[in-house]
Fold this sequence. Notes:
The protein is mainly alpha-helical. It has helices at residues 16-28, 32-45, 50-63, 66-77, 84-96, 100-113, 118-130, 134-146, 152-164, 168-181, 186-200, 202-210, 220-232, 236-249, 254-266, 270-277, 287-299, 303-316, 321-329, 338-347, 354-370, 374-391, 397-410, 413-416, 440-448, 461-466, 477-488, 509-515, 528-536, 550-570, 581-586, 588-598, 645-652, 656-662; strands at 429-433, 453-455, 497-500, 520-525, 576-580. It has a 5-stranded parallel β-sheet.
Amino acid sequence: MMMADRDDVRAEPGELQSLALAFDRATYACDRDAAEAYGRTMLRLWPAHGAVLNGVARELEKLGAQEMAIQASRAACATPQCAGTWLMRLARLERQAGNLDAAFQVLKTALAQDPQMGDAWIELAGLHLMRAEPSAAGVALDRAFALGASSLDLHVHRSVIAANADEFAVALEHARAAVRAEPSSLVAQINAAMIEGASCGYDIALARLDALPPQSSSDVTLLRARAGVLIKLNRFAAALEAADAAIAGDPTHPLGREIRVAALKGLGQETEALVELESPAGTEVHPRLLVQAAALNLDIGQRDRAHRLVRQALAREPSLVSAWYNLGEAGTFDTDGADIAAMQALLERDATTAYDRILLHFSLGKAFLARGEYARAFGHFVAGNEAKRRRLVRYDVANDERAMIELTREFSASVLTQPDLRAHPTERPVFVVGMPRSGTSLVEQILASHPAVYGAGELSALPDVAAQRASIGRANWRSLAERYLEAAQTRAGVAERITDKLPFNFLNVGFIRLLFPNARIIHCRRDPVDRGLSCFTTLFEEGNDFSYDLTELGRFSRAYLALMDHWRAIMPPDRFIEVDYEAIVADVETEARRLVAFCGLPWHASTTTFYDTQRTVRSASRLQVRQPIYRTSINRAAAFGAALDPLRDALAGRPLVAQRLAQRPAVHR
C-alpha cells in the first residue's frame, strides 16, 4: 500500500479491480488513512460506477471517515443506478454532519421516487424535529405508520413530539415501546429515561440509566443525560464528574458545558462557572451559553452585563426562547413594543415546544406588567400557569394539607417542650422561613450585610436530614445535626451566625427545635393575597407546585397559616420571631435592629444599606434585594381586582383567616 501521499495513488483502467481489492484490504484492517486514499482515487477513476461508490461510502462510514463517505455517497447518488437505500444513507450522513437542509432535500428526492419508503418518512420526521417543526414531523410519522413501519425511530420520534406537547402519558407509552422494540438501543433507553424523569421522577430516570450495561458508560450522549438527571436530583458533585467526562468525549457540544456550569452553580462555585462560560480566544460562545452567563450575572447582581449578554444571544439566535425569558428576568424589555411583538410571533409558531410557550407566556406577562397593562399581563400569566400545572400530573394539594396537619401531631407541644441533653448546642444557625415571595430573601440580605453573618442562601441540607429522622432513632439525631452543620458551614468561615433561608423550612420548625434548641428561627410574613399574586406571576425553577393554580395556592396557604399558628403557640419567643414584609418596607432600620438583636449580635449600620452587599442570590428576588426599599409591592393585588377572587375564596375557606389577618400587628414606624 502507498502510505506517503494518498493523493499520489494512481491506477490504470485495467488495474481498477486490484485497486478495489486494496480498498477492501484497508477497510478490513481498519486502516482509515489507506481506505480514504484508495476511496478518493476510486471516486476519480470510477465516477459512473454507482454501486461501487455506494459500497465505498458504506465502508468509509463504518470507519468514521464521514467527510469522504459523504463525497462517495453524493457521487453514487448522482449516477443513474441510484437507489432509495443509497439516498437514505446520504440523508443520514448529511444529517450527522449537521447539513440539515441538504439531508432534507435528499429525502424529498427519495420520497418522490418511492413514496412507500416507511424508513424515509421516519428519517424525514427526525429532520423536522431537529428543525423544530413538530407538526410536520407528526405528518411524516403518520405516513410511516400507515405504511406499516414499526421501528425504534418511529416510537422515539412519537415520544419526543408528545413530550414537547406535554402529553406525557403518550410520550411515555412510545418511549417504553421503543425500549421494548430494541432494549439494547442507547437512544431508546436515554429517551425513555428523560421522559420518565419529567413525568415520573428523576430518581426513576437515574435508575434506568444506571442499569445500562457497563460498556455503555463512556458513551457521550449517555454521560450528558446522566449528568442532567443528577442536576435535577441536586447531586451536583456527581453531575460535574459526568459532565467533565462528556466534555472530554465531545469538547464542542454546548450541552456538556451547560450542564457543567449548572453543576458548578449547584456547588456554589459561581466564579468557576463564569470562567467556564468565557470564550476562548478567537471563538464565539454558543448563544445558549451566553444565556447561562447572563443568568449567572443576575445571581451576582451584574444586571447590565446580564442584559448585554442576553441581547448578544438574541442577535445571533432570535428564536432562542430562554434568552427572551432571561431578558424578562433582568426586567429590561424595550419600551417601543418590539420585544413584545417578537415574543408574540414566537408564541404563534409551530416551532415552540410546550415548555417554550410557558416561558413566553411568563415573559409576556412581565412585559405587559411593566407597561401597566394588567389585564393582558394577567391573561398571559393564567395561560402560562395553566400550561405549567398540566405538567404536574402527580401533584395533589390535599397531600400537602394532610402532611402539614400530621406535622402538628408529630411535633406537638408535649414533644417540643421535652428537654434533650443530646441535642446540638450550637447557636450558629439562623433559619429564615416562610412562604415563597414573603420577604425571606430580603431578610437574609439584611442579616448577611452584618459582618458577623454569613448568608448561605437556600440550603437543601435540612430537608435532606429531616427526611432521615424516621429511620434514625432520636438518640442518634446528633449525627443528623453534624451532617447539616457540615453542609451549612462549608463557606461560612468564622461567621458567628449562618443564615439558611430555604422558605419551606417552615415545615421543619419542630424538627429544628429538637435538633438545635439554641438555633433562631425567623418567620417572614406578607399579606397573603399580595404574596399569592407574587407566586402566581413567578415561574419557579423547581418545586412550589401549588403556585400554578389560584385555588390550590389559597388552599396551601391556608394550611401553612394553620401550621404557623401551631408553631407560634409553642415556640419560645427568644428562639422564634415573626417579621412582616410590610413592616420592613415602612421602616427598614427598626426592623433591621430587631433582627440583629434577635440574633444576639451588636448593631451594625451596614444592615440598612443591604442593597450594596455583594453576594450571590439565586432566589426569584435576586434583583429586588439589590435595590433600596420600595413600596410598589404593597397592595399590588388591588390592580388585578376580581381576577384574584379564586385565591381570596380559597383563603377565606379557613374561618380563622379573616380573624388572623385582622390581628396582624401594626406596621412598625
